[in-house]
Amino acid sequence: xxxxxxxxxxxxxxxxxxxxxxxxxxxxxxxxLDMFMTEESINGWKNVWAEMINTRGLxxxxxxxxxxxxxxxxxxxxxxxxxxxxxxxxxxxxxxxPNEPKLSLPVNRAAMPKELKDLKNVLMENLSVH
Length: 130
Known about the structure:
The chain is an all-alpha fold and 130 residues long. Helices cover 62% and strands 0% of the residues.
């Protein structure tokens, strides 16, 4: 019996990953969609990206930042390492003076259940609007 790794991710993550896939498709159009010739390749992408988002503790705000940073950083769709970098890099709108050191964002794993619940609520609101 083959177990799809995506089955281990919650429905919340499925919706988040679907939304992320669609956003990247809207941003990069044919460049993005040409990378996925089969449903299997799409599901493989979703599995790997969902796993890395969970592993790295990326929050909804970090993912939004990553999408915004991709516009400034990449003419072509980002690879997974590029997207993680875009999520973890301060955006041009986040003020950092030249004398201030760049700080990496701490991941508060204790707060993650609340953040996931908040994310679920936001996603459910967005889904009910459409």
